[in-house]
Amino acid sequence: QQPVQSPQAVILREGEDAVINCSSSKALYSVHWYRQKHGEAPVFLMILLKGGEQKGHEKISASFNEKKQQSSLYLTASQLSYSGTYFCGTEPLISNFGNEKLTFGTGTRLTIIP
Amino acid sequence: NAGVTQTPKFQVLKTGQSMTLQCAQDMNHNSMYWYRQDPGMGLRLIYYSASEGTTDKGEVPNGYNVSRLNKREFSLRLESAAPSQTSVYFCASSEKDRANVTRNTEAFFGQGTRLTVV
Fold first, then answer.
1. CA nearest A91: which of A108, A72, A74, A71?
2. Which of A8, B22, B24, B91 is 20 to 30 A from B47 in CA distance terms?
3. Cα-Cα-Cα-Cα dihedral of A88, A93, A97, A102, to 10°?
4. Partners of residue A32 in chain B, C-beta under 8 Å
5. Angle at Cα A8 formed by Cα A31 and Cα A17, nearest 5°?
6. Burial class of residue A85 in the structure, from the number of CB atoms within 10 Å of its CB (0-12 exposed, 13-18 middle, 19+ buried)
7. A99 vs B50: CB contact, 8 Å cut-off?
C-alpha cells in the first residue's frame, strides 16, 4: 500500500516556507524523499533511517517519527528551483532491517511563483 | 558512468501486442525496481528484484512479467498490451548492505519509457 502524502499541491511565493507530510500504515525502516521536475526522472534528496533522525540538505530538511510512521519534508525560504513534484518513498521494517520493497506516495506538486 | 539506462524511450503499441522494456545499471547494485507513473497516482511499484535470480511482486503486477537476467539487467515484459498500460515506466536501482545498516539506500532512476497502447 502506498504511503499517503499531503498536501497534494501547494503554491508558494519565492521565499515562503512549506511542509510536506508522508504517513504510512506500516512500520518503517526508512523514508526517502525525491524531487521530480516535469518530464524528468525523480532525483534523490535524502534518506532517513529508523531511529527518529532529522536531516538537512541546504534549505531542505526532513524528520522521521518512526513511532508514528510519519515523515515531514521542510522547505524554507523557497527558491524557484524548488518547483517540482516531491515524492516520499518508504521501506517497510522487516526483522529490524528494511527490505527492498521501496514504495512511493502519490506526490506533492510544489509551484513557486516569483 | 551511465547509471541506469532504459530502452526504448518512446513506444506505441497496438492492443494485444507484446514488448519488453529493457533496463541496465552499471553501478553494481543488488536491488532493481520497475515503476509506472500515471497522473495523480504517483509512482507505483510493479516488480522488484532484491538480487540476481530473485523477483517479487509490487503493488500492481498484473499484466506484467519480469526477468532479472544478471546483476546488471532487469527487463519488464508486457505479454498482451492493454490501453490501461499506457503510462511512463521507470526503472531504478539501489544498494543495501545488510552488514551495515547505515549504508545509504538511495535509488537511482532511469530516464523513463513513455508507452502508449492504442
1. A71
2. A8
3. -40
4. 105-107
5. 75
6. buried
7. yes
- Chain A contacts of B98, Cβ < 8 Å? 97
State the Cα–Cα distance between residues A76 and A79, nearest whole angstrom: 9
Q: What phi and psi values does residue B115 have, to the nearest 5 degrees? A: -110, 130
Question: Between B31, B40, B41, which is nearest A100 by CB?
Answer: B31
Whether the CB-CB separation of B19 and B13 falls below 8 Å is answered with yes
Q: What is the pLDDT along chain B (118 residues), one digit of tens a residue?
A: 679 999 999 999 999 999 999 999 999 988 899 999 998 889 999 999 988 888 999 999 999 999 998 999 999 999 999 999 999 999 999 987 555 554 557 899 999 999 999 9
Q: Write out chain B residues lying below 8 Å of A103, CB-based.
A: 45, 58-59
C-alpha cell at B54: 530473485
Question: Measuring CA to CA, which residue among A64, A96, A104, A29 is closest to residue B105?
Answer: A29
- Distance from A76 to chain B by nearest Cα, in Å? 23
- Residue A77 is classified by DSSP as S
